[in-house]
Amino acid sequence: MRKKIAAANWKMNLNMSDALQLTHDVMKGFNAVARNCEIILAPSFPYLSYIAGLTKENNSIHVAAQDCSAHSHGAYTGEVSAQQLKSAGATHVILGHSERRTYHHEQSEILYEKIKQALSHNLKIIFCCGETLQQRNSEKHFATVTQQLEETVFKLDPKELSQVIIAYEPVWAIGTGINATAAQAQEMHQCIRKETRNKFGNEADHLPILYGGSCNEKNAAELFAQPDIDGGLIGGASLKTESFLAIADALG
Ligand code: PEP
Fold first, then answer.
1. For ligand 1, atom 2: residue with the closest CA
2. Which ligand 1 atom sits closest to the C-alpha of 216?
3. 59-114, pLDDT tens digit by residue?
4. Closest CA to ligand 1's atom 3
5. How far apart are the first and last CA of the chain?
6. DSSP conformation class of 70
7. How many angstroms does the Cα of residue 213 sit away from the middle of ligand 1?
8. Which residue ranges form the domains of the chain, and what is each CATH number?
9. Left if phi > 0, otherwise alpha if psi is -120 to 50, otherwise beta: which for 156?
10. Which protein residues are within 6 Å of ligand 1, measured from CB?
């Protein structure tokens, strides 16, 4: 059985006290009923160790950083290394988010370096992939996503792959209020699983593949009912306790 996961990408939102309050409220609601899923909270760097401290007793609640450096340590002002994240209590790191690809020009080469850094410090990876609207409209969406994976996580060995969660996030759906339909998302998740099976055999059955892109409490149940969708990476809707918990509820 694959893990069901609701991951909250808070991006560059919330001040310290709001982030701690949201963590507290989400934990309370999450613990109030029996769950069949894990949650991962991805706050900004400065709050990581506080939130990791709040959640550390709960085996189903994890803490992710939103990025890490491609370098191990040294004179890289403003960057945060995988080792530093681990020492601050992070268990996961989001890599390859389309906002990093767009605004920071991150491409596969540097993402692969970041993946290796994260793995060498025992951080699990939420690796984002997804096509632009133009790529979809020109029917290049499957090829685009497959290439993004081939140049990065498909270069890992099977043991390393077991530390990876994939998040399919069509760029045109992120923060736009326009989600991929359940059928569009399932079709891509099925493709990702098939490509993973071609490279890694049965490891593909254990790979969690999350959907991200305007996922909310209204559309989550239909998306999560698809056989290859194992949960969601949630942006805007993860900033409100009720919405995020309703999305977790949709995972059962
Ligand atoms: C994201 O940025 O990972 C995301 C899925 O954002 P949103 O849910 O706001 O579309």
1. 235
2. 8
3. 999 999 999 999 999 999 999 999 999 999 999 999 999 999 999 999 999 999 99
4. 235
5. 14
6. S
7. 5
8. 5-249 (3.20.20.70)
9. beta
10. 9, 169, 174-175, 212-215, 233-237
pLDDT score, position 124: 98
| Phi then psi dihedrals of residue 218, to 5 deg | -85, -35
- In ligand 1, the atom with minimum distance to the C-alpha of 215 is 8
The whole-number pLDDT of residue 252 equals 82
User: Among the options 38, 99, 169, 217, which is catalytic?
Assistant: 169
Q: What is the DSSP string of 179-238?
A: PPPHHHHHHHHHHHHHHHHHHHGGGGGG--EEEESS--TTTHHHHHTSTT--EEEESGGG
Q: Is 169 annotated in the active site?
A: yes
Residue holding tokens 């890694």? 200
**Is position 97 annotated as part of the catalytic site?**
yes
Q: Please tell me the pTM assigned to this model.
A: 0.97
Give 195's contacts (C-beta < 8 A, 6+ positions apart).
Answer: 146, 149, 150, 154
Mean pLDDT for back-to-back runs of 10 residues, the chain (252 residues): 94 98 97 93 98 96 98 98 98 98 98 98 98 98 98 98 98 96 98 98 97 98 98 98 97 88
Q: Is 126 helix (H, G, I), strand (E, B) or coil?
A: strand
**Structure tokens, 158:** 């099977």
Catalytic residue among 62, 92, 97, 189: 97
